[in-house]
């Protein structure tokens, strides 16, 4: 039938019968003589038309090429507090707590801390040998600078951006959009210059997913086609893109998700025929086709570095875990099943520790799972009647309110934690763990149908940031492995850079810091004996306007902390807060935090 442009508003209102009454008021009189049977037939005919249209769209015969803004751009109201009972009993709670700088003997993972106290302990020799901070302390400091503002757009693609990924070493970023172009950016610095642009081939409607090889030398993308497409990163010619034919049994075929194995020798794919495919790059052939469900397979991936265990998520809300070592293609049986979502899975991300994954769903929730605790064997059959598949379509219907505040969990739900507060609409929105190197995987971040980047605290279930950045759905998100930067890919044609920026009301404090005035004597007396204030961050600056001066006498110590190009406010405190320093009048300390450096200049 070809591609037909459909407006979402027309689809949303398709079931509403609109009658235009005459201006003279004869509409009421006409209604008295209408045949009720004709009204029923007309309503039945219209409902039948809606059903046909939805089936055509689901089969891929009709593609939605134009979406207007008829969706709520506000975040949903979540009335219930997150239930932390199961989370606090799990191993991941203590693991993330320690990885983000809060030891087992510490209290709440949200308790306040002072960077100066950490420096004092390091200076006095308290802690590991060598005088450097351990990785968890670095993550603890880095988590003070979680992205909170949109800095700028790195590219406007003139079409919807569907996906974007960082290479594992963080040196490159790749994006794919509906204009069939793959853009590669230099991610070695925060400027993100575009270094090449590749015209993808055999693209039908849009590029749906893309992934890097583990070594960063290749990439694979998928679209509405019966093949995967692989190319080298440094080839710019369309002729260098190779087809990996999957040989499906279905004629109208689309691959919604792809994932490289951690060994780089295989590629997993999930398609609209309900099957999971594995392609062997060494033998150049398809080695696996597993019927997973009757519905679309929207998410696939590998659990850890071994590439033996992988998972799949489908439109029926069921997650299945597979073990390649004992998988029989003739009679495939999963190693385990996870039940708990009321609607389809849109994305699954692994913590890469062999135990935990998160899943994003059309039921407007993210769930954290422990793969050592599967749902009962009969759970899948028991919950089929409770799943809402087919009752609404997330591409144009309003989200059922019952999803935001469900009365109870599904029978057989073994999830560790559930996160709610974002919207999943229009497309397969991704949710991921934050990087281990800089955050200790303290956060879960996701795109949103409201155009926001949503960042959850894994340990509390609360939203710590909801950055309004786009005018349309944010479909994919990518956190840099070594910097506190997130790139968001949106249907408003933009890829935006999200970074940490100080509050606007801190600008005056920053100006007073650059040109300090000597405080009067009474001010110094009042300052003595006070506890050091909590760290606050000043506005983003390129360079210091001048050297920091010593604030009079009285044994005060004055700090300037520089984080890349961000200046943190100075602290004036009594020298009793630190142990005895050397007789030198000035000392310089440096803390290397991956690619960021904190410089602590002490004036005594």
Automatic annotation (TrEMBL):
It comes from Culex tarsalis (Encephalitis mosquito). It comes from the Eukaryota. GO terms for biological process: proteasome-mediated ubiquitin-dependent protein catabolic process. WD repeats lie at residues 338-372. Residues 516-537 are annotated as: Disordered. Keywords: WD repeat. This is Putative microtubule associated complex. PROSITE patterns: WD_REPEATS_2, WD_REPEATS_REGION. PANTHER family: DDB1- AND CUL4-ASSOCIATED FACTOR 11. One of its GO terms (cellular component) is Cul4-RING E3 ubiquitin ligase complex.
